[in-house]
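Progress note, project year one: complex with XIL.
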Amino acid sequence: MVAAPLAGKSASSLSLNAIATRKGLRFGSAIASGAPGADRGSVANPAYANLVASQCGLVVAENEMKWQALRPTPTTFAFERFDTILRWAERQHLAVRGHNLLWHQPKWLPAWLNTYDFGTTPHREAERLLTTHINTVLRRYGQRIGSYDVVNEAVRPADGVLYDTSLSRALGGAEPTLDLAFHTARVAAPHAQLVYNDYMSWEPGNAAHRAGVLRLLEGFRRRNVPIDALGIQSHLVTQGPDVAASVTRLQRDWRQFLDAVTQMGYALLITELDVRDNGLPADIAVRDRAVAEYTRGYLDVTLSYPAVRDVLSWGLCDRYSWIEGFEPRKDGARRRPSLYDTQFRPKPMREAVAAAFATATSR
Ligand code: XIL
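Model obtained:
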Protein backbone atom coordinates (compact mmCIF):
# COMPACT_ATOMS: atom_id res chain seq x y z
CA MET A 1 0.00 0.00 0.00
CA VAL A 2 1.38 3.42 -0.90
CA ALA A 3 0.75 6.11 1.70
CA ALA A 4 -1.02 9.22 0.47
CA PRO A 5 0.65 12.54 1.25
CA LEU A 6 -0.37 14.09 4.56
CA ALA A 7 -2.46 16.66 2.64
CA GLY A 8 -1.49 19.73 4.58
CA LYS A 9 -2.09 18.22 8.01
CA SER A 10 0.93 18.13 10.29
CA ALA A 11 1.45 14.73 11.88
CA SER A 12 0.52 16.07 15.33
CA SER A 13 -2.89 17.30 14.18
CA LEU A 14 -3.78 13.85 12.88
CA SER A 15 -5.35 11.41 15.29
CA LEU A 16 -3.32 8.38 16.30
CA ASN A 17 -5.81 6.16 14.52
CA ALA A 18 -5.51 8.24 11.34
CA ILE A 19 -1.73 7.83 11.42
CA ALA A 20 -2.12 4.10 12.14
CA THR A 21 -4.69 3.57 9.39
CA ARG A 22 -2.25 4.81 6.75
CA LYS A 23 -0.15 1.74 7.55
CA GLY A 24 -2.98 -0.76 7.77
CA LEU A 25 -2.98 -0.54 11.58
CA ARG A 26 -5.68 0.51 14.01
CA PHE A 27 -5.22 2.34 17.30
CA GLY A 28 -7.54 1.93 20.26
CA SER A 29 -7.93 2.22 24.01
CA ALA A 30 -9.70 0.76 26.99
CA ILE A 31 -12.65 2.73 28.33
CA ALA A 32 -14.99 2.14 31.27
CA SER A 33 -18.61 2.76 32.10
CA GLY A 34 -19.54 5.14 34.89
CA ALA A 35 -22.08 7.46 36.37
CA PRO A 36 -22.67 10.67 34.39
CA GLY A 37 -20.45 13.42 35.72
CA ALA A 38 -18.16 11.07 37.66
CA ASP A 39 -14.43 11.78 37.31
CA ARG A 40 -13.66 8.42 35.67
CA GLY A 41 -12.18 7.09 32.47
CA SER A 42 -15.67 6.38 31.25
CA VAL A 43 -17.99 6.90 28.33
CA ALA A 44 -20.10 9.12 30.60
CA ASN A 45 -17.23 11.56 31.23
CA PRO A 46 -17.15 13.86 28.18
CA ALA A 47 -13.54 14.96 28.76
CA TYR A 48 -12.33 11.38 28.56
CA ALA A 49 -14.86 10.05 26.07
CA ASN A 50 -14.09 12.88 23.61
CA LEU A 51 -10.36 12.21 23.89
CA VAL A 52 -10.85 8.51 23.17
CA ALA A 53 -13.27 9.18 20.31
CA SER A 54 -10.89 11.72 18.77
CA GLN A 55 -7.82 9.45 18.79
CA CYS A 56 -9.12 5.89 18.43
CA GLY A 57 -10.55 3.54 15.85
CA LEU A 58 -11.53 0.91 18.36
CA VAL A 59 -12.16 0.46 22.07
CA VAL A 60 -12.32 -2.28 24.66
CA ALA A 61 -14.22 -2.33 27.95
CA GLU A 62 -11.79 -2.10 30.86
CA ASN A 63 -13.81 -4.41 33.15
CA GLU A 64 -17.41 -4.56 31.97
CA MET A 65 -17.29 -7.81 29.98
CA LYS A 66 -15.45 -9.83 32.62
CA TRP A 67 -17.29 -12.58 34.50
CA GLN A 68 -17.06 -10.52 37.69
CA ALA A 69 -19.05 -7.76 36.00
CA LEU A 70 -21.32 -9.81 33.76
CA ARG A 71 -22.24 -12.72 36.07
CA PRO A 72 -23.60 -11.64 39.47
CA THR A 73 -25.05 -15.14 39.99
CA PRO A 74 -24.89 -18.56 38.28
CA THR A 75 -28.20 -17.96 36.54
CA THR A 76 -28.11 -14.26 35.65
CA PHE A 77 -26.28 -11.88 33.32
CA ALA A 78 -25.87 -8.14 33.91
CA PHE A 79 -25.26 -6.58 30.51
CA GLU A 80 -26.20 -2.97 31.14
CA ARG A 81 -22.75 -1.52 31.89
CA PHE A 82 -21.15 -3.18 28.89
CA ASP A 83 -24.08 -2.25 26.67
CA THR A 84 -23.59 1.40 27.61
CA ILE A 85 -20.03 1.24 26.31
CA LEU A 86 -21.05 -0.58 23.13
CA ARG A 87 -23.85 1.88 22.34
CA TRP A 88 -21.52 4.82 22.88
CA ALA A 89 -18.81 3.25 20.69
CA GLU A 90 -21.27 2.62 17.88
CA ARG A 91 -22.47 6.22 17.99
CA GLN A 92 -18.81 7.26 17.56
CA HIS A 93 -18.28 4.72 14.76
CA LEU A 94 -15.63 2.91 16.80
CA ALA A 95 -15.00 -0.83 16.52
CA VAL A 96 -15.23 -2.80 19.78
CA ARG A 97 -13.10 -5.71 21.05
CA GLY A 98 -14.47 -8.17 23.58
CA HIS A 99 -12.37 -8.66 26.75
CA ASN A 100 -12.71 -11.35 27.97
CA LEU A 101 -14.70 -14.58 27.90
CA LEU A 102 -12.58 -16.53 30.40
CA TRP A 103 -9.95 -14.98 32.69
CA HIS A 104 -8.51 -18.32 33.72
CA GLN A 105 -7.52 -17.55 37.34
CA PRO A 106 -9.64 -18.00 40.48
CA LYS A 107 -8.69 -14.49 41.59
CA TRP A 108 -10.51 -12.97 38.62
CA LEU A 109 -13.60 -15.20 38.61
CA PRO A 110 -16.71 -14.40 40.64
CA ALA A 111 -16.65 -15.76 44.21
CA TRP A 112 -19.75 -17.87 43.53
CA LEU A 113 -17.93 -19.72 40.75
CA ASN A 114 -14.87 -20.45 42.89
CA THR A 115 -17.04 -22.15 45.50
CA TYR A 116 -19.62 -23.58 43.11
CA ASP A 117 -21.14 -27.01 43.73
CA PHE A 118 -20.86 -28.80 40.39
CA GLY A 119 -23.10 -31.63 41.58
CA THR A 120 -22.93 -35.30 40.69
CA THR A 121 -21.73 -34.85 37.09
CA PRO A 122 -19.21 -32.02 37.54
CA HIS A 123 -17.82 -32.35 34.03
CA ARG A 124 -21.21 -31.83 32.45
CA GLU A 125 -22.14 -28.95 34.74
CA ALA A 126 -18.83 -27.11 34.14
CA GLU A 127 -19.23 -27.56 30.40
CA ARG A 128 -22.78 -26.23 30.61
CA LEU A 129 -21.72 -23.17 32.63
CA LEU A 130 -18.81 -22.24 30.37
CA THR A 131 -20.57 -22.81 27.06
CA THR A 132 -23.71 -21.03 28.24
CA HIS A 133 -21.61 -18.04 29.22
CA ILE A 134 -19.75 -17.85 25.92
CA ASN A 135 -22.80 -18.60 23.76
CA THR A 136 -24.94 -16.03 25.56
CA VAL A 137 -22.39 -13.24 25.18
CA LEU A 138 -21.46 -14.02 21.57
CA ARG A 139 -25.03 -14.47 20.37
CA ARG A 140 -26.11 -11.27 22.08
CA TYR A 141 -23.46 -9.15 20.36
CA GLY A 142 -23.23 -10.97 17.02
CA GLN A 143 -21.42 -8.96 14.33
CA ARG A 144 -21.17 -5.92 16.60
CA ILE A 145 -17.95 -7.31 18.07
CA GLY A 146 -15.27 -8.47 15.66
CA SER A 147 -12.56 -9.73 18.00
CA TYR A 148 -12.56 -11.45 21.40
CA ASP A 149 -9.97 -12.25 24.02
CA VAL A 150 -11.51 -15.69 24.48
CA VAL A 151 -9.01 -16.71 27.15
CA ASN A 152 -7.01 -14.28 29.29
CA GLU A 153 -3.88 -15.05 31.35
CA ALA A 154 -4.03 -18.84 31.70
CA VAL A 155 -0.26 -19.29 32.15
CA ARG A 156 1.50 -18.95 35.52
CA PRO A 157 4.36 -16.47 35.03
CA ALA A 158 6.69 -18.15 37.54
CA ASP A 159 6.86 -21.58 35.87
CA GLY A 160 4.79 -21.43 32.68
CA VAL A 161 2.31 -24.02 33.97
CA LEU A 162 -1.43 -23.48 33.40
CA TYR A 163 -3.56 -22.26 36.32
CA ASP A 164 -6.39 -24.37 37.64
CA THR A 165 -9.84 -23.00 38.45
CA SER A 166 -13.04 -24.56 39.74
CA LEU A 167 -14.08 -24.94 36.10
CA SER A 168 -10.91 -26.71 35.01
CA ARG A 169 -10.96 -29.03 38.02
CA ALA A 170 -14.51 -30.04 37.18
CA LEU A 171 -13.66 -30.36 33.48
CA GLY A 172 -10.63 -32.58 34.05
CA GLY A 173 -7.85 -30.08 33.35
CA ALA A 174 -6.91 -26.64 32.11
CA GLU A 175 -6.26 -27.65 28.49
CA PRO A 176 -9.71 -29.15 27.86
CA THR A 177 -11.23 -26.05 29.48
CA LEU A 178 -9.38 -23.57 27.28
CA ASP A 179 -9.96 -25.72 24.18
CA LEU A 180 -13.67 -25.83 24.94
CA ALA A 181 -13.78 -22.04 25.27
CA PHE A 182 -12.23 -21.53 21.82
CA HIS A 183 -14.28 -24.23 20.09
CA THR A 184 -17.47 -22.78 21.55
CA ALA A 185 -16.53 -19.25 20.50
CA ARG A 186 -15.72 -20.30 16.94
CA VAL A 187 -19.13 -21.91 16.47
CA ALA A 188 -21.06 -19.08 18.14
CA ALA A 189 -19.18 -16.28 16.32
CA PRO A 190 -17.59 -17.64 13.15
CA HIS A 191 -16.89 -14.08 11.96
CA ALA A 192 -14.84 -13.09 15.00
CA GLN A 193 -11.10 -13.01 15.52
CA LEU A 194 -10.36 -15.32 18.47
CA VAL A 195 -7.44 -14.29 20.65
CA TYR A 196 -5.40 -15.75 23.51
CA ASN A 197 -4.31 -12.72 25.58
CA ASP A 198 -1.47 -12.61 28.13
CA TYR A 199 1.29 -10.40 29.59
CA MET A 200 4.50 -12.33 28.83
CA SER A 201 6.56 -9.18 28.19
CA TRP A 202 10.07 -8.64 26.92
CA GLU A 203 11.44 -7.51 30.30
CA PRO A 204 13.77 -9.74 32.39
CA GLY A 205 11.95 -12.30 34.54
CA ASN A 206 9.47 -13.27 31.80
CA ALA A 207 11.35 -16.16 30.16
CA ALA A 208 9.31 -18.89 31.89
CA HIS A 209 6.10 -17.03 31.10
CA ARG A 210 7.00 -16.69 27.41
CA ALA A 211 8.03 -20.36 27.24
CA GLY A 212 4.73 -21.40 28.85
CA VAL A 213 2.73 -19.31 26.37
CA LEU A 214 4.67 -20.85 23.46
CA ARG A 215 3.89 -24.35 24.76
CA LEU A 216 0.23 -23.42 25.08
CA LEU A 217 0.12 -22.00 21.53
CA GLU A 218 1.89 -25.10 20.16
CA GLY A 219 -0.58 -27.34 21.95
CA PHE A 220 -3.51 -25.39 20.50
CA ARG A 221 -2.14 -25.93 17.00
CA ARG A 222 -1.47 -29.64 17.61
CA ARG A 223 -5.00 -30.16 18.90
CA ASN A 224 -6.55 -28.06 16.11
CA VAL A 225 -8.04 -25.53 18.48
CA PRO A 226 -9.42 -22.53 16.55
CA ILE A 227 -7.35 -19.49 17.55
CA ASP A 228 -6.35 -16.62 15.31
CA ALA A 229 -4.04 -14.42 17.29
CA LEU A 230 -1.92 -13.82 20.37
CA GLY A 231 -2.80 -10.69 22.32
CA ILE A 232 0.32 -9.18 23.81
CA GLN A 233 -0.84 -7.02 26.70
CA SER A 234 2.32 -4.87 26.77
CA HIS A 235 2.24 -3.54 30.33
CA LEU A 236 5.81 -2.36 29.87
CA VAL A 237 8.32 -1.61 32.65
CA THR A 238 11.25 0.74 32.08
CA GLN A 239 14.64 -0.66 33.09
CA GLY A 240 16.41 2.54 34.19
CA PRO A 241 17.66 5.69 32.53
CA ASP A 242 19.75 4.08 29.77
CA VAL A 243 16.81 3.29 27.53
CA ALA A 244 18.78 2.65 24.35
CA ALA A 245 20.81 -0.03 26.16
CA SER A 246 17.65 -1.69 27.54
CA VAL A 247 16.03 -1.80 24.12
CA THR A 248 19.14 -3.31 22.57
CA ARG A 249 19.39 -5.88 25.35
CA LEU A 250 15.74 -6.90 25.38
CA GLN A 251 14.96 -7.15 21.71
CA ARG A 252 16.87 -10.38 20.96
CA ASP A 253 14.72 -12.65 23.16
CA TRP A 254 11.63 -10.70 22.15
CA ARG A 255 12.20 -11.23 18.44
CA GLN A 256 12.82 -14.92 19.12
CA PHE A 257 9.47 -15.12 20.87
CA LEU A 258 7.60 -13.23 18.15
CA ASP A 259 9.29 -15.31 15.45
CA ALA A 260 8.12 -18.50 17.13
CA VAL A 261 4.56 -17.22 17.53
CA THR A 262 4.23 -15.94 13.97
CA GLN A 263 5.83 -19.07 12.50
CA MET A 264 2.95 -21.01 14.00
CA GLY A 265 0.63 -18.79 11.95
CA TYR A 266 -0.79 -16.60 14.71
CA ALA A 267 -1.58 -12.95 14.12
CA LEU A 268 -0.49 -10.50 16.85
CA LEU A 269 -2.18 -7.64 18.68
CA ILE A 270 -0.89 -5.20 21.24
CA THR A 271 -3.89 -5.16 23.55
CA GLU A 272 -3.10 -3.19 26.74
CA LEU A 273 -0.16 -0.85 26.25
CA ASP A 274 1.03 1.22 29.22
CA VAL A 275 4.33 1.82 31.01
CA ARG A 276 5.47 1.51 34.62
CA ASP A 277 8.18 4.17 34.93
CA ASN A 278 10.53 2.12 37.15
CA GLY A 279 14.17 2.99 37.76
CA LEU A 280 13.62 6.57 36.61
CA PRO A 281 13.91 9.79 38.62
CA ALA A 282 10.71 11.57 39.69
CA ASP A 283 11.54 14.57 37.48
CA ILE A 284 8.63 14.65 35.05
CA ALA A 285 10.46 15.84 31.96
CA VAL A 286 13.17 13.20 32.38
CA ARG A 287 10.68 10.45 33.13
CA ASP A 288 8.34 11.26 30.27
CA ARG A 289 11.23 11.34 27.81
CA ALA A 290 12.55 7.96 28.97
CA VAL A 291 9.07 6.40 28.89
CA ALA A 292 8.55 7.73 25.37
CA GLU A 293 11.89 6.41 24.15
CA TYR A 294 11.23 3.01 25.72
CA THR A 295 7.77 2.84 24.15
CA ARG A 296 9.20 3.81 20.78
CA GLY A 297 11.88 1.11 20.99
CA TYR A 298 9.32 -1.51 21.94
CA LEU A 299 6.89 -0.50 19.20
CA ASP A 300 9.59 -0.31 16.52
CA VAL A 301 10.64 -3.89 17.24
CA THR A 302 7.12 -5.24 17.65
CA LEU A 303 5.58 -3.37 14.69
CA SER A 304 8.35 -4.72 12.47
CA TYR A 305 6.12 -7.83 12.47
CA PRO A 306 3.39 -7.26 9.87
CA ALA A 307 1.29 -9.77 11.83
CA VAL A 308 0.48 -6.87 14.21
CA ARG A 309 -2.64 -5.02 13.06
CA ASP A 310 -4.09 -3.49 16.21
CA VAL A 311 -2.48 -1.47 18.99
CA LEU A 312 -4.60 -0.64 22.04
CA SER A 313 -3.49 1.25 25.12
CA TRP A 314 -4.95 0.37 28.53
CA GLY A 315 -6.56 3.75 28.97
CA LEU A 316 -5.46 6.98 27.35
CA CYS A 317 -4.56 9.26 30.24
CA ASP A 318 -2.63 9.14 33.52
CA ARG A 319 -5.62 10.45 35.43
CA TYR A 320 -7.51 7.14 35.26
CA SER A 321 -4.77 4.57 34.77
CA TRP A 322 -5.05 1.36 36.81
CA ILE A 323 -1.25 1.35 37.29
CA GLU A 324 -1.35 3.86 40.17
CA GLY A 325 -3.41 1.41 42.25
CA PHE A 326 -1.70 -1.73 40.93
CA GLU A 327 1.91 -0.74 41.59
CA PRO A 328 2.58 2.78 42.90
CA ARG A 329 6.08 4.21 42.63
CA LYS A 330 8.34 3.60 45.61
CA ASP A 331 9.15 7.32 45.92
CA GLY A 332 5.48 8.28 46.09
CA ALA A 333 5.53 10.32 42.88
CA ARG A 334 2.43 9.74 40.79
CA ARG A 335 2.78 7.22 37.99
CA ARG A 336 2.79 8.50 34.39
CA PRO A 337 1.90 5.34 32.42
CA SER A 338 -0.19 6.75 29.57
CA LEU A 339 -0.09 8.81 26.39
CA TYR A 340 -1.90 11.81 27.92
CA ASP A 341 -1.40 13.42 31.32
CA THR A 342 -3.88 14.00 34.15
CA GLN A 343 -5.08 17.18 32.37
CA PHE A 344 -5.66 15.33 29.05
CA ARG A 345 -2.58 16.95 27.48
CA PRO A 346 -0.48 14.85 25.07
CA LYS A 347 2.83 13.61 26.49
CA PRO A 348 6.05 12.60 24.75
CA MET A 349 4.71 9.02 24.82
CA ARG A 350 1.90 10.12 22.53
CA GLU A 351 4.45 11.49 20.06
CA ALA A 352 6.46 8.27 20.34
CA VAL A 353 3.43 6.14 19.43
CA ALA A 354 2.61 8.49 16.52
CA ALA A 355 6.20 8.31 15.27
CA ALA A 356 6.29 4.52 15.56
CA PHE A 357 3.11 4.31 13.46
CA ALA A 358 4.39 6.85 10.95
CA THR A 359 7.61 4.89 10.37
CA ALA A 360 6.07 1.40 10.48
CA THR A 361 5.97 -0.56 7.26
CA SER A 362 2.58 -0.80 5.59
CA ARG A 363 0.57 -3.97 6.02
C1 XIL B 1 -7.51 -4.40 35.12
C2 XIL B 1 -8.36 -3.16 35.22
O1 XIL B 1 -7.70 -2.09 34.57
C3 XIL B 1 -8.63 -2.83 36.66
O2 XIL B 1 -9.57 -1.77 36.75
C4 XIL B 1 -9.18 -4.06 37.39
O3 XIL B 1 -9.28 -3.77 38.76
C5 XIL B 1 -8.28 -5.25 37.19
O4 XIL B 1 -8.10 -5.47 35.82
N1 XIL B 1 -4.59 -7.52 32.40
C6 XIL B 1 -5.85 -7.55 31.87
C7 XIL B 1 -6.81 -6.48 32.20
O5 XIL B 1 -6.15 -8.42 31.04
O6 XIL B 1 -8.13 -6.94 32.20
C8 XIL B 1 -6.48 -5.84 33.53
O7 XIL B 1 -7.37 -4.77 33.77
C9 XIL B 1 -5.04 -5.40 33.56
C10 XIL B 1 -4.12 -6.58 33.38
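Residues 62-63, 152, 233, 272, 322 surround XIL (CB under 6 Å).
The longest strand covers residues 267-276.
No further modelling is planned for this target in the current period.
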